[in-house]
Each structure stands twice: as C-alpha cells, then as structure tokens.
Amino acid sequence: MPPSAPGVTEPRAGTLEEGQVRAMFDRIAGVYDRMNAVMTAGLDRRWRARAADLAAVRPGDRALDVATGTGDLALELAGRVAPGGEVVGCDFAEEMLARARDKALDAPVPVRFEWANALALPYESGEFAAATVGFGARNFSDLGRGIAEMARVVRPGGRVVILEITAPQRPPLSWFYAVWFDRAVPALGRVAGDSDAYSYLPNSVKRFPGPRALAETMTGVGLADVRWIVTAGGIIALHAGTVAG
To answer: What is the pTM of this model?
Structure first.
C-alpha cells in the first residue's frame, strides 16, 4: 500500500515514513530472530508468553496478532486456542511474513499469516476474541488509530494486549539501558549489516509513550479496565484492556 493510500497517516517528526519502515523490516528479516535473542538474552520468548497469557483466549477462539513480524507471538497464541481455534498474524513486511509461514508448519491449530496495514485492518468488527501486538506498536505512525483498529476487530469482552520495550526511569538500570540501546544495539546492527535499522530501534523506543501514557491512550480509544505490568527491571511493559460491550 503506498503512503498516500487510505488508512495511512503522515509520519510524526523524527520518524521514518511507512515505506521506509516496511523496507527496513524486509531487509532485516533474515537476522531478526537472532538479533532479538542476542539483544534480550533470550528472554523475548518469555515476554511473548506472558502477553499471550494476558490475551485470555481459550480453546476454539480466534485471535489476531498485529505487526506479527516473524510470527512468534502468533504461535504463542496458537498454543492457547488449541484445539479448534485459529490465529491470524498480519504485517506489512512480506519478508517477515515469509519466515513466519515457515514457522507455522507445525502449529497446533491453523495459523494464517497475511499482509495488512495496522491502521486499516481488513477484518470485520468483533471478529476475534483478542488482538495482540508485540514490539510493533511503536512503529504505528498513528498509535491511537492502530490501537482503535485492534479494539474494533475484537468482540465485546475480549482483550487487546500490547507488549513493548519501555525506558526504565531509575538508576542503575536506566544507566545500563542508555548504554545498551544507544551504543551496543547500533553496534550489533553494524555487525548484522544494517546499522540504520538498529539505530532506529532505540529512537523508536524513546519516542514511544511510557506505561501510564500508553494506558491513557488505550482508555481514550474506548478500552476498559486497562492495566499494565512493568517487568524485566523496568525495560518491558505489558498492557491489557477489555473491549467494552
């Protein structure tokens, strides 16, 4: 979808345009999983498992994972809707989706990975029992609109869950975080062959609202009972809200 297409907004100051973000994720798809494992010491899988738990889906449910990337959170959801359920993972980076499809071959329920823009989801209102996004909400060019779209496609009483990196506020972890994300992560990106992409990562985290402000955004689009958990020493925030009836 071109930047001028319906459902796409102009980027905020200091962000990349949608086409640039999509091209960036297509470029790094081959190293994405390995870089995540290195940057998080392998803990990213545990955080996705917690996000899937917060989605509160049950066997037979249909769940949606937005900005699914290489599909790890969608596959966590698959284990929770089995037997009889279904998971859809959507993203706008085709190279990421190709790798997600390879992972889904042994999933316990059907997992469909398809192209979609998070700001204009091609699904019916109330179609899913839950919608999640893991480490992708900070790439929404319009955060409120992206969350509102997730809420729209979830049935009343269902959950919207957001898993994101957040900036710790207290030393010594805040000092370590600054060194790691401002220096070490871009250096890892240079080793991986894409320094621009892994310079974008810390900048996108800095721009993203903190836990309380994100909760207010979720409430502002109509989600109820919004709660959050900050874990990993203050580096990871998990938010969950309920779609009002």
So the answer is: 0.86
List the CATH number of the domain containing 57: 3.40.50.150
Q: Tell me: the pLDDT tens digits for 95-105? A: 999 999 999 99
24-46 burial, b at 16+ Cβ within 10 Å, e below that, comes to: bbbbbbbbbbebbeebbeeebee
The residue length of the chain stands at 245
Distance CA 10, CA 4 (A): 9
Q: In one letter, which amino acid is 107?
A: A
Assess contact for 199 and 15: CB atoms under 8 A: no
Range of the domain at 73: 18-163+210-243
In a domain, 184, yes or no: no
Per-residue confidence (pLDDT) for residue 233, from 0 to 100: 80
Nearest to 185 by CA among 52, 58, 31: 31
> How many CA atoms lie within 13 Å of 215's alpha carbon, on the beta-carbon side?
15
- Asked whether the beta carbons of 60 and 38 are under 8 A apart, the reply is no
Overall average pLDDT of the 196-224 stretch: 86
Residues contacting residue 152 through CB under 8 Å, at least 6 positions apart: 121, 125
